[in-house]
Amino acid sequence: MSTGDTGVTFEEMAAPGREGYTPPGEKTAADLEAVFDVPVRISVVLGRAKVPVASLLKMDVGSVVELDRQVGEAVEIYVNDRLVARGEIVLVENRLGVTMTEIIKAA
């Protein structure tokens, strides 16, 4: 700390680029700690299909439903039924996963 001629005490202020600096009005991950344990439902839409009820009732284990998407096309990622991103299907250790490629900004 330093004291000017007026006797006012000045404290060192964090400057942009310094560790721990948060610009006024911006939130950090620590500010969101209260919601870290709130469960959300994540859905990924691989594709859609229109199927008559009669065909649906004839389906059994192993039935194949053709979707309207092609391999390599983007998939939509929803959080609590709200579109938040687009991504691509990836294979990780013989399991399907999704990698986000585009975040959708709220309108």
Assign the CATH superfamily of the domain at 37-103. Answer: SpoA-like
CATH domain topology of the domain at 37-103:
Surface presentation of antigens (SPOA)
Order of helices and strands: EEEHEEE
Specify the number of helices. Answer: 1
Structural class, judged by helices and strands?
mainly beta
Rg from alpha-carbon coordinates? 25 Å
What does the main sheet amount to? 4 strands, antiparallel
- Averaged pLDDT: 81
Query: How many strands appear in the DSSP assignment?
Result: 6
Rounded to the nearest angstrom, the distance between the terminal CA atoms is 46 Å
Strand content: 25-35%
Shape: elongated
What CATH first level of the domain at 37-103 would be assigned? Answer: Mainly Beta
Provide the CATH architecture of the domain at 37-103: Roll
Uncertain segments: none
Strand order, largest beta sheet: 3-4-5-6
Helix content: under 10%
List keywords for this structure.
single chain; 107 residues; mainly beta; Surface presentation of antigens (SPOA); 4-stranded antiparallel beta sheet; two-stranded antiparallel ribbon; 1 helix; 6 strands; elongated
General description of the model:
The protein has 107 residues and is mostly beta strands. The chain has a domain at 37-103: SpoA-like (Surface presentation of antigens (SPOA)). It has one helix spanning 53-58; strands at residues 2-3, 9-10, 42-45, 75-79, 82-92, 95-103. The strands form two sheets. A four-stranded antiparallel beta sheet has the order 3-4-5-6, with no helix packed on it. Strands 1-2 form a two-stranded antiparallel sheet. A hairpin with a 5-residue loop joins strand 1 (2-3) and strand 2. The chain is elongated, with a radius of gyration of 25 Å. The relative contact order is 0.12.
